[in-house]
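DATA SHEET
Item: assembly model
Revision: 1
Owner: S.N.
Input lines:
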Amino acid sequence: MRTRIKELRARYDLTQEDLAKKVGVRRETILFLEKGKYNPSLKLAHDIAKALKTTIDELFIFEDD
Amino acid sequence: MKDKIKIAAGIGVVVAVVVTLILYMIAIDGQDPSAYLLIIIPVIIVLSASYMIWDRIRNMRAGLPQKDERLKKVEYKAAYYGFIAAIWSAVGSNLLSEIIYDEELRGGLVAASVVMVSGLVFIIAYLVLMMKGDVE
C-alpha cells in the first residue's frame, strides 16, 4: 500500500505533528502511515482524508501484486 | 484528567518497584553475588516501563493523545504474547527446575517466574511492535 499523505501534507504546509493533532493520533502513527507500514482503520483513513481535503481512494493506493 | 491519573499511577508503581529493588539489594549486601542476577529482569522491566511513561508524558505535553488506535493494537498484541508466555513459563519453570536441580519449584517461585517472564515478554513485544510500525 502506498499513500499520498506526505505529498498532500506538504501541499497544505502541515507537519506530521499538525496532522496528528488534527486527526487525534500520535505523530509516529502518521510516520508509519506515510511509509505504508501501518494499515489504518476506516475511521482514521476517513479523518485523514477529510483533514487533507481529499477522498480515501485518492489518499491510499493499493497496488496489485 | 484521566490520562494524568494513569501516568501518576504508572510512576507510583515504578517508584514502588525501584524501592523494593533497593531494599532487596541492601538485604543481600554482598552475601551472595549470584542474587544480584535475579534483579536483571525487574531492572529491564522498570527501565522499559519508565521509557513508556516518559513517551506518554512527551505526547501529552505536545497536545497529542497518549494512546491511539495503533498503540492500542500494539498493547493488545503484546498482552497476547505476554499471556502465552505466562502459560508456558508456569509449565516450563517447573520442568526446567526438575531437569536442572532435580526438585520441584515452590509455588511462590513459580508465581514469580510467571510474573517475570510474562512481564519481560510483554515489554519486549510492546517496544518491538511500537518501533516496527506494522502491527498485523
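QC remark: Chain B has four helices and no strands.
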